[in-house]
Give the backbone structure.
Amino acid sequence: MRQARLVLAISTSAILFGCARSPVESFGLIGFRGQRVVFVSDSADAAVKEESPSLQDLPLFPLEGSPEVVLRQATGQGLYEWGASCQSQYIPKRVSWDPRMGLSHASDGWNVGDAPYLLAYTKSTNTDYIVVLNKVQVKRGQVRHPGEASLRKTFFAEVGLDLSVIDAKEGRRVYRSPASGRFESSDSLSRLVPRAMELAIDNFFTALPQVHRWGCRELVDRFH
């Protein structure tokens, strides 16, 4: 009993004083059910690493623009569409970064820099949560099989996302987590990055608390 009280006291102090930081912050307190969630991706750091000359001239996505801009746009679109594709019970919206949000870009990702600004933004826009893309990274290359002679080459794409979840009503960041996806193919090379991106976004959402309550049964069943 004494040990149980000690664990409870430690857990309570971590929540009250914010001792638990990224990548898992106030893990059990997030839920998008019936909430208005905005997704911001246009201010993220973006990087592409090519390991195979065969892929260098192949576009990341069938979109026009620099690779960095395309990555931000594709990630933001994927995050936004996730809710519609599985009928999640929240209202998604795409927005651009706005100084009125009161957010600051720190070394550990986007965080709340000015809580009063954020609360004012919340009231004027009726926003419950802000999901901010901190970083998006893509690596493409060829799958190597040591000692194997294969005429059919297999290529891969890995996508890494770093996202922060801001509770706009509370005026603080409540969650930050990396998410990744990997896809391999020998013939669908144009689908390498889009498919890896889809998996990374799936992994982000399914890792959030209360995902079972969002009505996204198809996705949950696929992952569990």
